[in-house]
Design brief:
163 residues; alpha+beta; Aminopeptidase; 7-stranded mixed sheet
Length: 163
């Protein structure tokens, strides 16, 4: 199947919500009860929240599609609590559980880096990862992110990639 990556549209919101629900329900079922996950999804993936993400001038939402169906998301942009043009932060990056380990996450990161380089301003991209999340740490290491211990926040690791 052919993978395409483009910017999401408002028409994609129901598919983005379904994709997020599938990912979060599988990935976090062992760590959180079902009510917590549902509240999280309702808050973070509400129609209004996704509309803001799609229309933000400070962030970009990339949508990976396999055979036209959403398979992964990379949402990145200005750090949430900083006004910084030289640094971008990955806010969300996930792949449908049925399509993990097929290179989709890497393709999304590659497209993000391509777009950041083309802009000519951003010097680095950061992502925050819990120390115990070994699969995510390994993925980001493979994507050339390195741990910057001096920038860890509240026990969460700061991983940095030079652009």
């Amino acid at each position: 199947m052919q993978l395409t990556i483009d910017g999401g549209q408002e028409a994609d919101i129901p598919a983005l919500q379904a994709l997020a629900a599938q990912v979060y329900r599988r990935a976090y079922a062992a760590d959180h009860d079902a009510d917590y996950i549902e509240r999280f999804l309702q808050r973070m993936y509400s129609t209004a929240s996704l509309q803001r993400a799609l229309h933000s001038s400070a962030a970009t939402l990339l949508l990976a599609r396999l055979a036209g169906q959403p398979a992964g998301v990379c949402h990145f942009g200005a750090p949430l609590f900083e006004d910084c043009q030289e640094r971008q932060e990955i806010h969300r990056l996930y792949v449908h559980p049925d399509h993990c380990r097929q290179g989709i996450g890497g393709r999304l990161v590659g497209e993000m880096v391509r777009r950041l380089r083309a802009g000519g301003v951003v010097q680095e991209c950061v992502v925050y990862v819990p120390p115990g999340d070994i699969p995510r740490r390994q993925f980001y290491h493979k994507m050339q992110f390195r741990h910057a211990a001096e920038r860890d926040q509240d026990g969460v690791l700061c991983l940095v990639r030079r652009i």
